[in-house]
Amino acid sequence: MKKFAVFSGFLGAGKTTAMMALIDYYSAHYAKAAMISNDLGTGVTLADHRLAQLRGCEAFQITGECICFCHDVLIERLNACFDDGCELVVSDIPGFGVGAQEHVYHGLSENRFDGFSLAPFTVLIEPRNLALLRSGQAGEMGTILDAQLREADLIVLSKCELLDAGERDAALQWLAERYPRTEQLAISAATGLGLDALSRALREEAASLRRPEIDYDDADLQNAMDSLSEYYLQYRAVVCCNSFDGSAYLLTLAEALRSAIQDAGGEIPHLKLLAWGPEGDYGKADLLGTDRPIELPHRFTEPCTDLAVILNASAVCPDETLDRLIGETVKAVSERFQLELTLFRKDHFGLGE
Ligand SMILES: Nc1nc2c(ncn2[C@@H]2O[C@H](COP(=O)(O)OP(=O)(O)OP(=O)(O)O)[C@@H](O)[C@H]2O)c(=O)[nH]1
Ligand SMILES: [Mg+2]
Prior knowledge:
Number of helices: 11
CATH topology of the largest domain: Rossmann fold
CATH architecture of the largest domain: 3-Layer(aba) Sandwich
Bound molecules: guanosine-5'-triphosphate, magnesium ion
């Protein structure tokens, strides 16, 4: 049995974290599994990919192009995983992912791949965004969330430990009524809840390959989809004397970036900061909106002297402004921590001024 599934969903929905937890669970209970991180930056190491590697997952990345439009590269990577003994491979999709059912699932089918089959097209939604959608207060994001969920075969309510059992049941029931052609389940990558149900759904069920009724040319949907700038930065940070607290650096930097982008009138659906030392100790900080607290899903266990850092961001902010704000903020915060920086790689593109 060789299966491939795409995980779609809004920025910060928990796709990468769910994929990592699923790979661990699936490999321990069923068979070898692998994940692919896919994003548009060219020649970069993705924060999501490096994080999965640091965590010890069987992880690969496809960069520079969406898997919607590079089926040969995708099929080659999948076949390498399956030849290596994997029975399940999951991949995310860049940006908002709307259209991936058509472009990846139908695209692959038309490409007549063989040797593996398609597992349900999986879309994650986190409790906060589901609550906004249900209350009609999601604004432009609501158009995207609704299109994503209408493409799904399987809707996964992520981060479900943040809800009590009653709230969880009500959320799943609402999803079942609103999206009757889908299946729904709840998972928590944090507690492991639902990982077996997700594993079994991907293992035992097939993709529907249906064509959802979505007007992809809809002006609201197009405007929302075109509203992002993407930013990729890799650098090395060395402390000039003694050692420093890598987690405090990531938190301070994430807070300073949140203020800078907020003051400029921008919004930041997801900014990821990942840093690691030569021995593999690492820390991660996530900014999931200017109105939300910084998440620190992983902290350094030891003081640091030398770090590799990756910053990836998807922001509603003109590209040049974002570049200036990030450059100035990284420099200022790093000076406060007495760090010497060496730039490795930068790529950014998106909204004009
Ligand atoms: N409480 C809680 N937080 C979670 C859970 N899963 C993910 N998160 C957090 O949610 C944030 C975003 O998670 P990611 O997995 O990076 O989200 P993503 O969908 O891959 O985001 P993009 O790559 O930007 O599309 C991180 O800070 C995670 O630690 C969960 O099960 N519970
Ligand atoms: Mg991700």
